[in-house]
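2024-03-11 09:14:02 INFO receiving multi-entity request
2024-03-11 09:14:02 INFO entity count = two
2024-03-11 09:14:03 INFO echoing inputs for audit
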Amino acid sequence: MSSPSSQDVLNTQIDFPKSTRISYTAWNEAIANHFFNPSKNGQPVYLQVDLDAIQLIGQQLGLQPEEAETSFIQAVNQYIFATTPPATNIIVSAKYMTRNEQHPEFIAFLAFCVLAASRMERDNEHGVSAANYYIRLNEMLRLDRVGRPSWFADTITAWQKLKEWLHEVHQGCYGIATAQPLNPVHPYVGYPQSQCLLRAADRQHLSTFFRWARLQPGDMPSSEWLSAMLREWANSSRCPLSSPAQRRITQGLADVQEALLTIIALELQAWDGSSINESNSVKRTEQSVLRMTIHSAAREVSWYDYQAEALLPIPGVPPLFSHVPTTPSEAVIVFGNHPDAGQWTLIPRATLGAEHVLLVHESQISAVREFLKQAALPTWQERTFRGIPPGWHCFRGVELVRVIPRLPWDSLQLHDNVTVRFEGGLILERNMYMVGFEPNLVIDGPGSVDSILLDQQPLPAHTGGRTVISLAQYCLQPGYHVINVGSRTRSFVTRNPHRPVITTQAVPQIAYPLRRVVHGYFPESTSQTIVDSQSIQPGTIYVSGSIIYGHSEDLPELLPYTILAPDGFKNYIILGRHPGEIYEYRNTLVVRKEQQAIRQRSLSFDVPFEPQWLIKAGRRKTYLSALQLYVQPPTYTPTDKHVQLESWIYTVVRKSYIKRLNPEQTAIWQLYASAGARLKAVR
Amino acid sequence: MMDYNAILLYLSEVGEGSWAQFKRAVASVRGESRSGDAANVARVMSALGHVEFAWQPEARWTICPPVLVILPRRPEPTAILCGQRPPVLLETLQTVAAQGHVFIEQSPQLDGPTVIQLRTTRWEALEQLADELHIRFVHNAAEYLASCLPELDALVAISPHSPHPVVPPINRFEPQLQRWKEVSQVNGDGLYQYENFYPDYRLFCDRQWRIVAKEIGIYTLLSPKMWSYNSEQQLLCIPKGLLPPVLFQRALVLSSGYLATFDQVDNTWVYRDVPSAIASALGRKLKQTL
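2024-03-11 09:21:47 INFO inference complete, emitting structure
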């Protein structure tokens, strides 16, 4: 721990403006919950604290917007200067952070550091220099000095521990850390600055960039390509980013640009294809994708909308082809493998090494043919099918293997001579995999990649063609992992399954509903369906898994049990385990002669319950035997279906049986007798 | 080879999700298995009572809560574990079962997850075990299911009408040959398969189209002598390609805990330990005479 310098003069007579007093601990808890929570599972997470964020969190603590920032600064100051040297408590909490801490104590302090960085945003005069950062920080600390407080160097430990807490303790469930030093000379400033390089609103607009760049979820473009595209987009008139963000992309220092690219790569790996709509709310717009099926034998194509995980047939020609293309880019449509809709689905850009189908308008047909001769394997063929829109030509078996720069067709412009992607893996959340079932790293293309690293450990190199590396082979520990493939970086999180046992709900989520009718049940739907009812309706049962949900009077009857018993007895009684489950048969054809021969024959009884005991009454003796080797004990709960309770009780309490039972069965019979005696006493 | 235990572990962890998510998960653990297409895995998981799938109003799945299901008409108390299988439950099960003198038998299946069967000599031991695991304990699941499942005519009657499809079919079921034939156009009455991301089968009968479950369509066209039952050995044999609707399969699976095994010699699926009451109830409902 650094000792305080003489310049670290605390104005002990601070006259804070009056504000509602909220403790440091309360702020720490509220900030941690706000920024690091299960909704950030596997996503890049930013401790982006600015005035707006503090006011929002303050509201949760019961503060008015105008008093939140003051209250926060006051709470942090009092905490920092509660120890000598200052902030010892915070640095100790970081250095000795325990793995079972709910929220580390230093989070509010780091938020305080980021708040100082966010104040630089508005400061056009001083810019984003380190000196300017300390002006803001010292103002907030009420220190009458310039430059960095000496104890501030230790804050790097807290940033590193935050990353450890997110990645190792919580295995990415509260998000993936994004704080980075930015500038090796001023890492103390770089960490907080990295959290506010892009505001939340700017980050939301990144989906617009991804779509503009014709990227697809899961793409891993090289940083050079991504950087070039980002600059082009930021310079375009339609770029929706804020001015500071645009400036950083186009004119920022190399360190800042590198940090921005890291953040954008993280956002790209977490992107699921969503985009923001006009009201700035995030919305999935990947609801409808054009898909084509080629019926080779019939030389015909049929068209579908892939929507809500189903194919909806489109009669005739899709609207996409209803007008003549006005630009070359509009005249080449690429169909490929969509992550969900499969082949052949409209995709924004062809992928190196993958098979595609192209629909090309006649205005571009010659140029495309020439391009394919240069850039594709000679597997492509022009084909005619019914259902292809008039004026369009179909190319099948198109596999691009060479990058040709500056093409007029955006959909055929490849990123690089190498494509890298993850394939497969058991995905628990976006970018989060189940341990032991990590994805394969697939590298395609003629270019070679020598440096492939997994958590800094070398993996086999890519020397052209296709390389598939099964990451599951590397027995990864749960937690955060980084893959570097040349200039591409991708991180992902693995974790063990830890879900607790699901308790049986009152109403199942998916079930097969059946309506009770006079002679059985009638289906209410063709198969299992999503149950939207809050309670089980009388007259309806729901089959879900191995359970049937329903009111007892609606539940099905058991299938009859067939019992065979020797003929020749006067009376037969069969008992079930539920009081009231009794079946009685009086044999009216008993003859005294030839008893032995008669008892060779069998009588058959169908009983509507699970039978346990058989009682056979002859002329003088009554025999009790078990119908199962392992007889079930009684339930003590009378059945509401077979209401011969009196007979059941009378039968089980009677003592004059000749028992043909083993010791275990005898013990169980005693339980029946006790149950009968108890029920008799109650009645 | 398809890793069914991995898929059940994964579904137990995730709890519920979309059909696309299920398909991706199946593709990840499929290996080179031919039987590992998502629809087949869904059938297996549903027949075993582990997972429920819905196709309408959207294609989704949900894991079933774990349940100890008593096998019907057994000489000794025997149960199987159905539904969710989180690691924490399996660990606790090992400990608690050992204390309660319940024997756990784990039997791998070729085309399904391992069957976890519990045997003991006292009925109350199984009930206590379920109590200690905080899971449901269900008696006679197979029988109740067989008892309440509807008749084939009712299943067809509830199947929705559909307009004449605007795209060509891809397969047609040939009832005489009991197999599917690739087609590219509708050719008279029959059961047709259409391309989609969930099973999409249409029955064309009496100038009417209906969207039906594959098995319901097949059984509508079958002769009534396709099933055979050996009452002594309690074996129910069903020809290849004619497995019954999935809830009927579930009633048969919950009789023994095991999926049907394929008899290469007779080309039939064989369900074992099926009590005659269950076999005849299911056969009668699907218009099959035993």
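2024-03-11 09:21:48 INFO post-check: The first strand of chain B starts at residue 16 and ends at 18.
2024-03-11 09:21:48 INFO post-check: The first helix of chain B runs from residue 4 to 14.
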